[in-house]
Amino acid sequence: MWKSFFISLALINAVLLVAAWLFEIYTQHNVFPGFVLALIITSANAVAALKFAADGIHAGNNAFMIRVMGGMGLRLLIMLIAVMIVVFFTNLPTLSFTISLFISYISKSVLEIIFVLKIKDKNPQPFSND
Questions:
Q1: What whole-number distance in Å separates Cα of residue 107 and Cα of residue 10?
Q2: What is the torsional sign of CA 23, 25, 29, 33?
Q3: Residues 52-64: tens digit of each pLDDT
Q4: Minimal CA–CA distance to 1: which of 129, 125, 115?
Q5: Which pTM value belongs to this model?
Q6: Residues with Cβ < 8 Å from 53, sequence gap 6 or more?
Q7: Angle, nearest 10°, between helix axes 32-56 and 61-89?
Q8: CB 79 within 8 Å of CB 39
Q9: Cα-atom radius of gyration of the chain, to the nearest Å?
């Protein structure tokens, strides 16, 4: 499961990198460094999301939801700190970095949902309120 997740993640990153490279060539704007940084931040976020979900899958439904939602809160806080560091302490174009982060975050969130559902389908749990 992890192997197919990383292959899918690499494929998404490759497609987004090519799109950013073509956009930079077409518009002559320097967006590539900010886009690469956005891909790194969101890729780490996606790996952490799957790790939280995989660790919580063998627990009951309530424990699973607490791990996933608690992990989501922690991941969003860490992403916020990373974005603030990039915006305030680098000379990257803020708008292109923010748009790149948004596009990358949305595409990897879809990937997270797909793989969390695959994990859940492989390990069906009877409904319980723990």
A1: 12
A2: positive
A3: 888 877 777 788 7
A4: 115
A5: 0.83
A6: 64, 67, 68, 71, 112, 115, 116, 119
A7: 160
A8: no
A9: 17
